[in-house]
Amino acid sequence: MLQILVEKAARRLSVSDTRGNVLLQCPVALGKSPLGHKQRTGDGKTPEGIYYICLKRETGKFGCALGISYPSARDAEKAYSDGIIDAELLLLFKQAEAERRRPPWGTPLGGEIYLHGGGAQRDWTAGCIALEDKNMAKLFQLCQEGDTVQIIP
Q1: How many structural domains is the chain composed of?
Q2: I want to staple 30 with a disulfide (CB 3.0 to 4.6 A). Which of 5, 46, 83, 130 is the partner?
Q3: What Å distances lie between residue 121 and 61, 112, 153, CA to CA?
Q4: Any idea what the CATH number is for the domain that residue 14 is in?
Q5: Count of helices and strands (H, E) across the chain
Q6: pLDDT for residue 42 is more than 90
Q7: Is this structure's pTM higher than 0.70?
Q8: Residue range(s) defining the domain that contains residue 58
Q9: Which candidate, 67, 79, 58, places its Cα nearest to that of 128?
Q10: pLDDT in tens, 101-141
């Protein structure tokens, strides 16, 4: 298993193996409103927290992509306590996380947050993490579903 670390303030992604060897380090672009944690669909923020790769797509709008398990059960618990989602949806998030599969997307919390190509020159995504295409191709080859993604401020 690999560890992916995204440092939002530094606009940097690092991939390390279990021994701490850095396999890839590269610049990234974030959502159009990068400060703070993503809380709802359309806010333009990139999530913060601990997630995992829940989906590998070979083709997409920006080439190959790795889906991140946002919203997490923790994100859903906060949304539930704030009255944004109901108990039934909260349970679905908890089950998805327990089984390390893709959480519900298309909820008031948003979803479909990816690591994808398209360029890292400026913050431009709807909340995703964008890399230069050559770096995304390398990341895609290195990573597997289940690898940890930690996104810090």
Answers
A1: 1
A2: 46
A3: 18, 22, 19
A4: 2.40.440.10
A5: 3, 8
A6: no
A7: yes
A8: 3-152
A9: 67
A10: 999 999 999 899 999 999 999 999 999 999 999 999 999 99
Predicted pLDDT at 73: 97
- Is residue 93 classed as helix, strand or coil in its secondary structure? helix
Name the residue with tokens 């790795």. 66
Residues 6+ apart with CB under 8 A from 10: none
Q: What is the pLDDT of residues 112-121, one digit of tens each?
A: 999 999 999 9
CB-CB contact of 89 with 76 (8 Å): yes
Instruction: Give the separation between CA 138 and CA 127, rounded to whole angstroms.
Output: 21
Q: Which residues pair with 130 in a beta bridge?
A: 29, 116
- How many angstroms separate the CA atoms of 129 and 66, rounded? 10
Query: Would you give the distance in Å from CA 64 to the centre of its chain?
Result: 14
User: Is residue 40 very low, low, confident or very high in pLDDT (cuts 50, 70, 90)?
Assistant: confident
